[in-house]
C-alpha cells in the first residue's frame, strides 16, 4: 500500500505541473479520474492513503501531460461537451468551449426563426468526433442530421459516440459536401480546419503534437476549407438555409466576403466568443 495520502499526491502533481508550465488543475482532474471520485469525495478523503495501483497510474499520466503535453482528454479517453461525455483520441480534435457557443448560437437562431415545428434537415461538415451532430440531435430530437468527414479514423470515433448516445445520425466519408451534393439542407454547420500552415510553430505542443493536422490546417491563409464549402453551398441550400461556421479569431471579414460572393443578398453575422474574439459566422442563405 502506498504511504502517500491523496492530499500529498494532489500537492505533488500541482507543483510538478506548474514547474513544467502546465495547468496545475489537470492534476486534480486526473486524480478524480483514477480514484473514480467526485470532487466532494476527493475533499472528504484527502487524508487517506491513495493506494499503489491508483498512484502508479496517476503519476504516469501526470508525467505524460507535464513532460510531453499529452492532452488530459487523451489520457482519460473522453471529453465533455454541452454537458455530455464523448470519446476522443488522436484522430479527432478535443472539443472546445467555442464550439459549444457555435451550437448554442445555432439553436437560438432556429428558435428565433420559429422553426421549432419545422422538419429540419441538417449536415455537419468535418464532423470529427461527431459532437456537433449528436448534440444537435439530442437538443432538437425531430431534426434529421447527417455528417461528413474525410477521415475514416475520425468517423470510427463519431460512430462510437453515436451508439453510446443513442442518436440517429447518418455519417458519410468524403471531402466537405461532396458525399451529399444530391441532397438539400435547412442547416449547414462546420467547424473546419482554419489555421494557416505557417502558424504551426506558434501552436502549443498540446495542439501541434496531438491534434490531427487534417483538422487544423487549411492552406497558406487558413481559408481553403471555407472556399471549398462555400463553392458547394448553392448545390445543397434550400430557399432558406442557415449556415453556421466556426472561424479563426481574425477571419470574420474574409469568411463574410466569401459567403457574399456566392450569396450577394445574404448578410453574414460575425459573432465574438466569450473571450471577445471573432469565432462564429451565421448567415441565412437563399437560392
Automatic annotation (TrEMBL):
Source organism per UniProt: Pontibacillus halophilus JSM 076056 = DSM 19796
Family statement drawn from the similarity comment of this UniProt entry: Belongs to the protein N5-glutamine methyltransferase family. PrmC subfamily.
Catalytic activity line of the entry: L-glutaminyl-[peptide chain release factor] + S-adenosyl-L-methionine = N(5)-methyl-L-glutaminyl-[peptide chain release factor] + S-adenosyl-L-homocysteine + H(+)
Function: Methylates the class 1 translation termination release factors RF1/PrfA and RF2/PrfB on the glutamine residue of the universally conserved GGQ motif.
Coiled coil location: none
Matching HAMAP family: RF_methyltr_PrmC
Principal EC category: transferase
Residues that bind substrate: 191-194
Biological process annotations from GO: methylation
GO molecular function, one term: nucleic acid binding
NCBIfam families xref list: hemK_fam (TIGR00536), RF_mod_PrmC (TIGR03534)
Ranges of residues in domain Methyltransferase small: 118-195
Domain Release factor glutamine methyltransferase N-terminal intervals: 8-77
Protein name: Release factor glutamine methyltransferase
E.C. code: 2.1.1.297
Matches recorded under InterPro entries: DNA_methylase_N6_adenine_CS (IPR002052), HemK-like (IPR004556), N5-glutamine_MTase (IPR050320), PrmC_N (IPR040758), RF_methyltr_PrmC (IPR019874), SAM-dependent_MTases_sf (IPR029063), Small_mtfrase_dom (IPR007848)
Family matches, as PROSITE patterns: N6_MTASE (PS00092)
UniProt keyword annotations, A-Z: Methyltransferase, S-adenosyl-L-methionine, Transferase
Amino acid at each position: 500500500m502506498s504511504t502517500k495520502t491523496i492530499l500529498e499526491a494532489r500537492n505533488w502533481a500541482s507543483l510538478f505541473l506548474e514547474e513544467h508550465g502546465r495547468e496545475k488543475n489537470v492534476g486534480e482532474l486526473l486524480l478524480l479520474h483514477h480514484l473514480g471520485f467526485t470532487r466532494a469525495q476527493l475533499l472528504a478523503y484527502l487524508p487517506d492513503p491513495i493506494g499503489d495501483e491508483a498512484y502508479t497510474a496517476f503519476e504516469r499520466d501526470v508525467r505524460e501531460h507535464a513532460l510531453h503535453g499529452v492532452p488530459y482528454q487523451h489520457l482519460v479517453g473522453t471529453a465533455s461537451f454541452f454537458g455530455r461525455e464523448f470519446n476522443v483520441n488522436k484522430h479527432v480534435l478535443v472539443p472546445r468551449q467555442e464550439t459549444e457557443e457555435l451550437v448554442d448560437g445555432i439553436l437560438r437562431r432556429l428558435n428565433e426563426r420559429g422553426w421549432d415545428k419545422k422538419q429540419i434537415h441538417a449536415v455537419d461538415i468535418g464532423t470529427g468526433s461527431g459532437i456537433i451532430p449528436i448534440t444537435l440531435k439530442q437538443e432538437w430530437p425531430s431534426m434529421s442530421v447527417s455528417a461528413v468527414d474525410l477521415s475514416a479514423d475520425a468517423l470510427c470515433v463519431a460512430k462510437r459516440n453515436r451508439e453510446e448516445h443513442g442518436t440517429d445520425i447518418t455519417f458519410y466519408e468524403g471531402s466537405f459536401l461532396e458525399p451529399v451534393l444530391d441532397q438539400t439542407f435547412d442547416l449547414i454547420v462546420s467547424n473546419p480546419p482554419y489555421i494557416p500552415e505557417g502558424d504551426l510553430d506558434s501552436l502549443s505542443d498540446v495542439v501541434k503534437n496531438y491534434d490531427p493536422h487534417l483538422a487544423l490546417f487549411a492552406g497558406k491563409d487558413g481559408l481553403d476549407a471555407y472556399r471549398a464549402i462555400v463553392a458547394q453551398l448553392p448545390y445543397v441550400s434550400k430557399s432558406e438555409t442557415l449556415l453556421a461556421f466556426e472561424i479563426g479569431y481574425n477571419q470574420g471579414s474574409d469568411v463574410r466576403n466569401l459567403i457574399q460572393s456566392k450569396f450577394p443578398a445574404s448578410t453574414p453575422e460575425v459573432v465574438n466568443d466569450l473571450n471577445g474574439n471573432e469565432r462564429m459566422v451565421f448567415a441565412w442563405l437563399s437560392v
